[in-house]
Design a protein that fits this description.
Helix content of chain A is about 75%, strand content about 0%. Chain A contains 17 helices and no strands. The chains are: A mainly alpha (about 375), B alpha+beta (about 525). Chains A and B meet through α6, α8, α10, α12 and α14 of A and α1, β10, α7 and α13 of B.
Chain lengths: ~375, ~525
């Protein structure tokens, strides 16, 4: 399929959906080129609107990330509480020398603006500070917590997308029939049932009652984690050829990931259904069918493609939410992810860790939003970057 | 408009993928049960863990870990914390003035790397704890450590220190190989940089060595084949996992773990399935604090008002919240420690007496605020639940209590700065000796948190000073009983309860014993 469709070259229904999209962007570039030769880099950007778009969004993302650090820093320092009191023992807190050493070690004896500027300076060198809870660098902590959650949320979103979109399409194609009603009830249940409750129930039934699922954690007890490459145990174990570890990791991943899919599948089913129904009534779909195109071609190349845009938006937001909000599921399955780390950091006023988590979550949302915006263009030429 | 039929599209594919994922779960389940068999022991607990470095740790999970990795000069046997027993020191002598403790090291003791444990290692390790100014440094406040000869070490205290033999078993005072620690950036100064190393490997002579350590997930310990202690460990490997209580219960029931440490009384009731439950009173004492500082509250500072509160509490009703095993301590010292008041002296509810005391206080319609950490649970008992019960009970006396819940981090500030009118807190023992509780006296750490300033009660202060420096269990016991009896009538603290604590273990595990210092000694566990 050609990535650039011009209405004049289009055929039937395809052309109808892409009028005026690409032409404007490439036309601007062409005009600039013919009017005056540009320096190499600018010419490159002018010819590649996607590169220009990515560059602009990256610059914005850096500014937003800076904003995230500032907001997180201010908010955590507004909390009425003393990190020394929260982290030192009941005896140690009574010794001024120990308290002074604690404050000095974590830079808490400096004025707040100095603390913030120091943090930013260290951040430029990739230093996120030292966690008061784990006594190691926040970066090290995050390098295990983030992949753990990423593995969980990644598996959940992949399964959700496959199942949710399939359910949504089937429901739309069987509108108001029994299958549709059934899938709507399932999706309603998915979005209504509290995830933590479902997690407890699933763990109880599939682990305790039936013994189908392994126990809590990411691996079987006593099993050594695979050599750290990505931090995703399934991937790392496969890379190292440690198949028993791989299967253990997949087994431990399955149940919590499936629990997390319940809500997202429900959400995606509903969105896909309504989006597909809307597209099914479009003229170009009717025209494609009138031309006698096979139903499969019409569904995948005309209907689903157009319907996926809102679905991708929801999926992006859901993925962001999965990455930053799985604390309860992580707690039930003893999954050492970002949610558990964030909770522990917040409840102990572990400022460097809270800042690190805030930054990661901010970056996750920025990245997911950027990916979603780029995917819009890939999926639907009407919304390509102009 | 004609409908598309789903049958022609490969929608079954994703369902197959989900089924495959579920199937893989089944295979994982099989391997889990297989790997926990044999000589591996899995212990589930809710982690409170920051480091494995003995000089820096003072958290419950850290104590379990370091107890297995490092030997201390003295130790305790099982649950009995009233009598120190030999550890790395085979014997000791305490001078008559209580200032000098001489310890003779066990011959032939070796670190896991095979090198001998020397007096120099002991001096280095203990001086390191002092120099680091960390959470456990206070254990050796005012103590000087010197080497007398190759196998003798002398600990000299500025003041008489009868508690020292009870302090030395603390795992934070574990003995490290000076040579190994120094080779990895360690020193007995504040610039010590060995923590990172000690979180990846151990440098002790304990029954286990450190295989892996993560403060969020799990700690794995492997049997030390060169352990020279008398009781060799049974299990080849110990896996300590960070798991929350509800999941701990299912894990131990299913056999995925062999020990669960944090189940509440409700959770252990009706467990069955061949599991063993060891229940008893925790050493944590939950107490009510009435601030004596009139600037904070003239109401709580009123002695008669304090009496009304003391008599107005229904202690038995509070115990029902904590379940089987919980007890009401008669004083601030836990019921199992030397110097604890007999249960017969515990305060009971006297509603008429409470109302009379309130009238005598001269305060009409008293209203006070109760500060507590609403997210804090003590041995599974939520302070929120307890605060609500106290509020209801005092209402019957005629006292209006306004609950002021706050996150622990926020409320700790109020408590430690003496800003609470009424406060609901607990004290966990730093070491199992009554002298740890002198901190509740006027002018001392916790006393000040209740606005009980130095000089507020000269009699109690004198008794406390005497108890702190007296040698001899019988005399000490009498002194601490006197202190508590007086505190129960004149002090700003009302001991409410020691909640229950439960250790659940598989039928195959033997030797489970709760210890208030290190919770459980995994090296002492055996198998049938």
């Amino acid at each position: 399929m050609s990535p650039r469709w011009a209405p004049s070259k289009g055929t039937g229904g395809k052309g109808a959906g892409v009028e005026g999209g690409e032409g404007a962007g490439s036309g601007d570039g062409d005009r600039l080129v013919t009017a005056r030769p540009l320096p190499g880099r600018r010419r490159l950007l002018a010819r590649h609107p996607l590169a220009r778009f990515l560059l602009r969004r990256t610059a914005t993302a850096i500014l937003l990330a800076l904003g995230v650090t500032l907001v997180t820093f201010v908010l955590t320092n507004l909390v009425p509480g003393d990190p020394a009191a929260a982290n030192l023992g009941q005896r140690a807190i009574g010794d001024p020398a120990i308290v002074a050493q604690f404050r000095h070690h974590y830079g808490l004896d400096k004025p707040l603006p100095v603390q913030y500027v120091t943090y930013l300076g260290n951040l430029l060198h990739g230093d996120l500070g030292e966690s008061q809870q784990s006594h190691q660098s926040v970066l090290t902590d995050l390098s295990t917590a983030v992949p753990a959650t990423l593995e969980l949320a990644g598996a959940a979103i992949v399964v959700s997308l496959i199942v949710g979109v399939a359910f949504g399409v089937v429901a739309a194609l069987h509108r108001d029939r029994l299958t549709d009603q059934l899938l709507r009830v399932i999706s309603l249940l998915g979005v209504s049932v509290p995830t933590f409750w479902l997690a407890l129930l699933a763990f109880y039934i599939f682990f305790y009652r039936l013994g189908w699922a392994p126990g809590s954690g990411r691996l079987d007890p006593g099993m050594t984690a695979p050599p750290h490459v990505t931090g995703l145990y399934t991937v790392d174990a496969a890379l190292a050829g440690q198949w028993p570890v791989f299967w253990s990791a997949v087994g431990h991943l399955a149940l919590p990931a499936l629990v997390l899919t319940a809500y997202t599948v429900g959400l995606l089913t509903r969105f896909t259904r309504s989006a597909v129904l809307e597209v099914l009534n479009q003229d170009y779909v009717r025209a494609a069918r009138a031309k006698g195109l096979p139903a499969r071609t019409v569904l995948f190349q005309y209907v689903l493609r157009a319907a996926l845009v809102p679905v991708i938006t929801v999926a992006g937001l859901a993925f962001g939410a999965l990455l930053s909000g799985t604390v309860l599921v992580e707690s039930i399955f003893a999954w050492p992810g970002l949610g558990a780390y964030a909770y522990r950091s917040a409840t102990t006023l572990d400022l460097p860790a809270v800042m690190g988590v805030g930054l990661v979550v901010g970056l996750v949302y920025l990245t997911v939003n950027l990916a979603v915006d780029v995917l819009y263009g890939v999926i639907d030429p009407r919304v390509r970057v102009q | 408009m004609p409908r598309f039929t789903a049958g022609s599209y490969p929608v079954a594919l994703p369902l197959v993928a989900v089924a495959a994922l579920a199937l893989s779960a089944c295979s994982g389940g099989t391997s889990a049960s297989g790997s926990s068999a044999g000589k591996t022991l899995v212990v589930d607990t809710s982690f409170n863990l920051k480091t494995a470095d003995p000089g820096r740790e003072f958290e419950p999970t850290g104590q379990i870990v370091d107890k297995a990795l490092y030997e201390t000069l003295l130790s305790f046997k099982g649950s009995d914390v009233t009598k120190p027993v030999p550890g790395l020191a085979s014997s000791y002598e305490h001078s008559a003035d209580g200032k000098t403790l001489t310890l003779h090291l066990r011959a032939g003791a070796k670190f896991a790397d095979g090198s001998a444990v020397t007096a120099d290692d002991v001096v280095f390790s203990l001086n390191r704890v002092i120099a680091l100014k960390g959470n456990p440094s206070f254990l050796l406040d005012g103590v000087t450590v010197t080497k007398t000869d190759a196998s003798t070490v002398t600990l000299t205290s500025k003041k008489a220190n009868p508690a020292l033999p009870f302090i030395l078993p603390n795992p934070a005072l574990g003995i490290l190989s000076a040579k190994t620690v120094q080779a990895h950036g360690g020193s007995a100064t504040s610039t010590d940089g060995a923590e990172k190393y000690l979180n990846t490997a151990s440098a002790g002579s304990g029954p286990y060595t450190l295989t892996s350590f993560n403060t969020n997930t799990q700690v794995v310990l492997t049997k030390n084949p060169k352990y020279t202690g008398s009781d060799k460990p049974t299990y080849d490997k110990i896996v300590l996992r960070n798991v929350q209580a509800p999941t701990q219960k299912l894990n131990v029931q299913r056999g995925d773990s062999q020990i669960a440490l944090d189940l509440t009384s409700d959770q252990v009731s009706g467990l069955g399935g061949g599991l063993k439950v060891d229940s008893g009173a925790s050493s944590d004492v939950i107490f009510l604090l009435l601030n004596r500082n009139t600037k904070v509250s003239s109401t709580t500072a009123n002695a008669k008002f304090a009496e009304a509160v003391r008599k107005g509490i229904d202690y038995k009703s509070l115990l029902s919240l904590a379940g089987t095993g919980s007890v009401q301590p008669a004083g601030i010292i836990p019921s199992t420690f030397l110097g604890a008041l007999p249960a017969s002296e515990a305060t009971g509810r006297d509603l008429a007496g409470a109302k009379a005391a309130l009238q005598a206080s001269g305060i009409a319609k008293p209203s006070v605020t109760l500060g507590y950490a609403s997210d804090l649970t003590v041995d599974g008992l939520s302070l929120q639940t307890l605060a609500e019960r106290v509020q209801a009970q005092l209402k019957e006396v005629g006292i209006t209590v306004t609950l002021a819940p706050a996150p622990t981090t926020t409320e700790l500030d109020n408590y430690r700065n003496g800003k609470e009118q009424l406060g609901l807190w607990y004290w966990g023992p730093d070491y199992p000796d009554p002298s740890d509780y002198l901190t509740f006296l006027p002018g001392n750490l916790v006393g000040l948190r209740a606005g009980w300033k130095a000089g507020a009660d000269p009699t109690l202060t004198a008794l406390g000073d005497k108890a702190a420096t007296t040698i001899g269990d019988d005399t000490r016991k009498t002194l601490y009983e006197q202190i508590q009896t007086k505190m129960n009538t004149d002090g700003p603290f009302i001991p409410l309860m020691q909640p229950s604590r439960n250790t659940v273990s598989a039928a195959s595990v033997t030797g489970v014993a709760y210890n208030p210092v290190w919770t459980i000694d995994v090296a002492a566990l055996g198998t049938k």
